[in-house]
């Protein structure tokens, strides 16, 4: 930076520094932040020789625009939002499984009330994920019998659950 650039930068500050500072204080409400913003704007002017080559009076709108953009950038930054980096991620929140546990206990109690044949078909089909043909093969009964037992078993299971206070 030459002596001429130094004098132009000083002239730029003298001409616009105080008014830009007041503008930034108005935007942020923080005089210390305004000092930093004005200093950053001047640093950007120093890094942009074409700005210093202009007359200080012609750069007023440039200074206000740069200051406003710096205020916006600071408001969006992590420091402003008080975000703190951590070495490891916090544990994930796990939903309460109490309701699911109670429901499974109710279903288990209701299954116990079914006949062994109905219970076996329901357990294989719904909990084992087996098709009708697979259930028939595993239990050694015809597919029609599996379908019938599944139909009547689910009906009995629904009634057993209703007796325990479970509604649709």
From TrEMBL:
Keywords: DNA-binding, Sigma factor, Transcription, Transcription regulation. Residues 106-157 form the RNA polymerase sigma factor 70 region 4 type domain. Residues 12-81 form the RNA polymerase sigma-70 region domain. Belongs to the sigma-70 factor family. ECF subfamily. This is RNA polymerase subunit sigma. InterPro entries: RNA_pol_sigma-70-like, RNA_pol_sigma-70_dom, RNA_pol_sigma70_r2, RNA_pol_sigma70_r4_t2, RNA_pol_sigma_r2, RNA_pol_sigma_r3/r4-like, WH-like_DNA-bd_sf. It comes from Agromyces badenianii. GO terms for biological process: DNA-templated transcription initiation. It holds the Pfam family Sigma70_r2.
């Amino acid at each position: 930076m030459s002596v001429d650039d130094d004098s132009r930068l000083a002239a730029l500050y003298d001409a616009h520094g105080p008014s830009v500072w007041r503008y930034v204080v108005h935007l942020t409400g923080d005089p210390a932040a305004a000092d930093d913003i004005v200093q950053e704007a001047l640093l950007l002017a120093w890094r942009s020789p074409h700005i210093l080559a202009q007359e200080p009076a012609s750069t007023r709108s440039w200074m206000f625009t740069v200051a406003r953009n710096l205020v916006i950038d600071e408001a969006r930054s992590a420091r402003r939002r008080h975000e703190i980096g951590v070495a490891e991620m916090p544990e994930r929140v796990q939903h309460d499984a109490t309701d699911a546990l109670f429901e499974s206990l109710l279903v288990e109690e209701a299954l116990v009330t079914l006949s062994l044949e109905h219970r076996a078909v329901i357990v294989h089909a719904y909990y084992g994920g087996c098709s009708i043909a697979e259930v028939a093969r595993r239990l050694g009964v015809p597919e029609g019998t599996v379908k019938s037992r599944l139909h009547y078993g689910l009906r009995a299971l629904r009634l057993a659950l209703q007796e325990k206070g479970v509604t649709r």
